[in-house]
Design a protein that fits this description.
This protein is of the alpha+beta class. The chain has helices spanning 12-36, 38-47, 89-94, 98-112, 125-142; strands spanning 55-63, 66-74, 79-85.
Amino acid sequence: MSSRTKIVVLHMKEIIYTAIFLILAIALGIILFFMFGPGQSQKTASDTNARYTPGIYRSSIELSGNTFDVEVTVDADRIRSIQLVNLSETTSAMFPLMQPALVSLASQIYSTQSLEGIEYSSDQKYTSQMLLNAIQDALEKATPE
């Protein structure tokens, strides 16, 4: 009787290396799938519909030689905050309607997410128009081209 038994000798080191390379190849395949898979084109399509480039944008206003900024913070599709920065106490004392006018305008802008149809009182007309122009300038900087 002649038996053709084959004995295969595998070194444990070779088995471990092969297993590691297989795991790395599978991980690379999964990463490539998520990077270039079908979901990626949907993300880029939704990014192009964004109204604003997220960030903080400023527009300067000069009154009687004093300069301050209107700061507008936006997300991709929402206006998050509007505030006055670098407003000195002197300017605040000389123009006391500045802060209340901005609070009134900001609350309307937050609710409508638009500068259209904003209402303001007649005693704050010019202050409100100046602030709206500064907010519009800041939002134009935030609008993607």
